[in-house]
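Exercise 7. Given the components listed, write out the predicted structure of the assembled complex. Treat all entries as one system.
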Amino acid sequence: MHHRPAAARRPTGPVPLLLLLALALTGCGQDRYPQTALQPLSDFARIGDHIQDQTFYWALGVFILVEGALLYAIFRFRGRPDDPEPAQIHGNTTIEIIWTLIPALILAAIAVPTVKGIFETGMTPSGQLLKIEVIGHQWWWEFRYPEYNLTTANELHIPTGRTVELLQHSNDVVHSFWPPRIAGKRDVFPGRQTRLWFKADSAGLFPGQCAEFCGIQHARMAFQVRASSPEEFDAWVAHMRTLGPRPAAGAQAGDSLKTASAGGTVQGPQAPAQADTARPAADPEYAKGEQLFRAKGCIGCHSLQAVDAPHGLIGPNLANVGAREYIAAGWLKNTDENLEHWIREPQSLKKGVLMPNLGVTADEAKALRAYLRAHK
Amino acid sequence: MATTVLGHEQTLPAHGAKTGLWSWITTVDHKRIGILYGATAFFFFLLGGLEALLIRIQLAKPDNNFLSPEAYNQLFTMHGTSMIFLAIMPLSAMFFNFMIPLQIGARDVAFPRLNAFSYWVFLLGGLYLNVSWLFGAAPDAGWFGYANLTSKQFSPGLNVDFWVIGLQILGVSSLAAAVNFFTTVLNLRAPGMRLMWMPIFTWMSFITQILLLLAFPVITVALILLMFDRFFGTGFYVPAAGGDPLLWQHLFWIFGHPEVYILILPAFGIISEVLPVFSRKPLFGYAAMVFSGIFIAFLGFGVWSHHMFATGMGPIADTYFSLATMLIAIPTGVKIFNWLGTIWGGSLQYKTPLYFALGFIAMFIIGGLSGVMHASPPADLQQTDTYFIVAHFHYVMFGGSIFGLTAGAYYWWPKIFGRMLDEGLGKLHFWLMLIGFNLTFFPMHIVGLLGMPRRTYTYPAALGFDTLNLVETVGAFILMVAFLVFIYNVIKTTRGPRNAPADPWNGATLEWSIPSPPPEWNFGQTPQVHSRDPLWETKRARGGPLPEPSPGTGAGIHIPNPSYWPVVSAIGVTAIFASLMMAHKTGYWGVIVAVSILFFGLYNWLFEKGYSEFTTEH
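Answer.
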């Protein structure tokens, strides 16, 4: 059943105990819990996990002793109404000093690794950091890679073995970025930058979600972290670099579009146009979808370019939406059926989402799906 | 003044009827106000429980559509707000009202009409919050109301207005009550009762009043800033206007953390009364209990940012708030060990109040230990805002406060209503509550660490949270049955005879020296106190139980007159806030009318004759 990556294996921890309890209740293995915080896969997450383990064992010890003493007293000192009055003890200074000091010592034992952990997690390591901007939106995530001039949404690509630093802010309300396998939470504020760093040591697709209540669709503001080997990551970057602005679509997106929440003006495309790599040869559905993407106004909120993507758009960047595992901010499987359903009725799938039902017909949804599917 | 015995003054026929609706509206008797607090708070507790059950039905299975996201967000916001401000706090206030004057040998509280005012403001504030349901606009931004989600831009509806205004109204009630009980405890203790001879429940309640007096002004200020942001377009919490949402978090938790101790200290006091009586042994380490309570309250003001480790405050702030938080575990540990020391070597009398008191210790330990687990910021970064935290604070608020308050209800019920609750049903209530509570809240520890965040109206099946959530929902319904058993117990015994003696449990404190229920004037003669456990002392000196006390005639005793001006003033206060909320639609004439009502009420209150001698009716 247990086949964790080698780097995540540790000899101790509340993992076995708690998981055993969970397993007993659910009768299934750890693959059932892809979002678990108990199986850290980065240096940052392991610092907190290690402290959590230590604290848990201290707590367990105290729990057993105190509950044991309580249960003993409950059975041992059972009295009857006609029993003689027990000895009237008002206190005992020695005992009281002892049981003040012992907890103080236990807390000191917890405090030492805690303070060490605070400074370890609080200081960003030096070296070749990959800096990624994380921007929270109601209710999706924008990821920008200044080093590569790339933008994507809801699926964060990171290399293993290299320290990543997230520079976070919000476009609207307070959110919290939480990829449990990779790191603990870091809140995401409007008008204030917060940071989080980690070095992932295992490749894979790991779910995470917003952890600060941010309005009606807080529950469906999820994302995936795709950690891959440095080679695969570099290949992904090289591929994304080809998803540049196209003259027609970019020009029509226009300079005058206003963003819903920030009120700012969308930047027009600045980089030179690149080859339209998304276009498959002579697919009529694709052509129809491309036309609908403008006609239905999709383009007002969604950018299709990974390179030089505009800031402050209301909707997620769709440059590589065809390649993503999930749509609608990390919770709806990216199948043809789901994508068409989402295009037609976002409000019934995710009530209150800023994307309105646009009266897209089934045929139109098919064409839009074909068009978006080609954006990989 | 209220407690002065004067035998020769003119008797005024100022006392109205002793029954009927009007007598309850105009009452200034601390005991009747206590009953009003209890009944109202229990009603809101059931409402909060109903909200919790709807939440649990929605979460029983993944991707459930039982509730819409808006309904869910309103329900979890109102569940938290109601349980804190409309259930646990006023249930504690019920015991402050009924028991503090009796425990210190007083005839009433220091300001009886202010006491009535506090109750009516609380009732109106509670109704005000819940009236929002009728508008389909119940508060929906969480009980913590984090800015800037609460700004007009992101919450344009009336929902957050109801929340802001409702909490402001309730704050008036809490502050007025705190002034009252603070003064009562300091000034109205029976002759001979030193501070360090006060019953421990009165002590913990006294500390709670100080916390209220210091913490509520902070939330009041925070809410006023939010009101200005929403009603007058200021930008205290709006980043685009140069404000900062983080300011709200600091202000809220400077109030919010002491609030936790406001919710738990009265329960500490109740447990510390129940354990000695049913162990037939004095409280172990009385002085340590008093000072640990003071220490907890003091430290409670210096740990607020442990709610905010994920905001990234930096290592220095994290270190301070982490260590200060851990420090609180020491006085809390002292309390738990002293409770164990109290029952150790005792002769435990297994009555229902003792069951709940022992259940309190067993459950509260779990909440305390998980609290130490998230005092460590690197670990808390995973735990915060997950169901692990929901589990933690329910072990403190339910396993602690509610178990403690329930122990108090069974313990003092005979004194308040003159009837014994059924022991069999009481124990059934206990076992159902213990099992239901643990089934509901223990799995939340696990599901939280497995990655389930709080305040989410649903979760996908793929994350594996379904089985544990189903167990939690089953547990919640067992809890519902537990409280139905309690209600049945109340109905059944209320129909039975008045069978409670003055001192059914062999109590140690003054409230057990007078009849059950106590006469309107409480003590026929002001008691003299010579020790910490005055009634045990008297019984020991006499060599056995005391005879049933006679209530006396009350002749010549000064007690306050009933008055309806507190109700009028309370309506004025509520109307001021309500008209302020509607002012952008209706204009400001409503505020002028409301202020006039308040001044009319206060003017008549001030010039009314407040006290008269009790007249016997036969």
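Discussion: The CA atoms of residues 5 and 525 of chain B lie 8 Å apart. Chain B has one domain: 21-613.
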